[in-house]
Structure formats: C-alpha cells, structure tokens
Write a structure and sequence with these properties.
By secondary structure, this protein is of the alpha/beta class. It contains 4 helices and 11 strands. The chain has one domain: NagB/RpiA/CoA transferase-like (Rossmann fold), CATH 3.40.50.10420. It has a 7-stranded mixed beta sheet with strand order 3-2-1-6-9-10-11, sandwiched between helices. A two-stranded antiparallel sheet has the order 4-5. A two-stranded antiparallel sheet has the order 7-8.
Length: 192
Amino acid sequence: MKVSSPRAAEKDVLRKEALARRAALSGVDRIEKSLSLADHADELPLPEAAVVAGFWPIRDEVDPRPLMDALRRKGHPLCLPVVAEPHLIFRTLERGAELAAAGFGTMGPGPGAAAVRPQVLLMPLAGFDAAGNRIGYGKGHYDTAIAALEKTGPLLCIGLAFAVQEVDRVPAEEHDKPLTGILTEQGYRAFG
C-alpha cells in the first residue's frame, strides 16, 4: 500500500481543481484549442528527425493528434506509449495502422509494431506550474518511463495541456521530473 505524503495530498487537490477547469471547457473549445497546438509545431525545440512519442487522448484531454500529424509531415517518426511492466514501452505509429487497447483507457499500436526509444515525449498531464513541474494522474507511468529513458540518452519532456490547467505551484517530490517545456493553445514555453 502506497503511503501518502503531505505533498501527494496537496497534489491531489491541485489535480482535481485543474481537471475540473479542463472539464469545464466546452467540446468546441477543446477541439479548437487542440487544433491550435499544430500551429505552434515550429516552436518546439526538436532535434531533426527525432522520434516523438505522442499519446492517445482520453476523457477531456487536449488532443495531440493534429500536432503529431504536423510533426510527422516534418519528418519525425512517431510512436505511442503502451502500459507495460516495469514501465511504459513505446511502439512505432504508422499511418493507417490498426490500434489496440494500450492500458489506462488509451489506444496504441499492437504487439506487432516495433518498440522504439523516443527522444521526445509529448506528455499528457493534469496540471503544471511556471517552473515546469507537472502533476500527472497519480499512477507514475511517465515518472518510471522517464527515469528508464534518461539512462539511455537525452530526452525532451514536453507537456501538452490547455492553459487553464496551469496552477500556481506544484509541490514537486524527489521522483518528479520537471518538463523541458509546455505547449498550450497559447504557444510553447521553455523551462530551465
């Protein structure tokens, strides 16, 4: 059983508040704001032809698929995460590929797709602050994946969210990895 710390409890409150603001956006607003991410694709500090891991949106998350398509057209190979042990694995996403349940309510390429090591993670999140700290969904999937990927080379971690998901301050814990930057409908913001 996981022991809850005061910081974890504070994060849980902030998570609920940020997700409530996200949920309050109308469906049309979510679509328009998601589409606008692609307008800012050139602002992302991506190495040429870097493998980019996107994500399949769930619930009322920002939809990264228009941005991912823009990055694919710029020559970036794409992949999607699949929930696995001990951490997420990333499988190549080809246009028109059949998708399967990938855990946590998401979709991803099936077991026949090649596993790859992304250089860039486009990450979903519940909340973020101006220092680049993020609040995930509390399961630690990205924290463990980032720790493993960082052992094998450089990694850019870019959060994707709606601007309304920003919080004043995330009570970051030792295991939390700060974001390289955040992309919202307002554009890209670098951290650090």
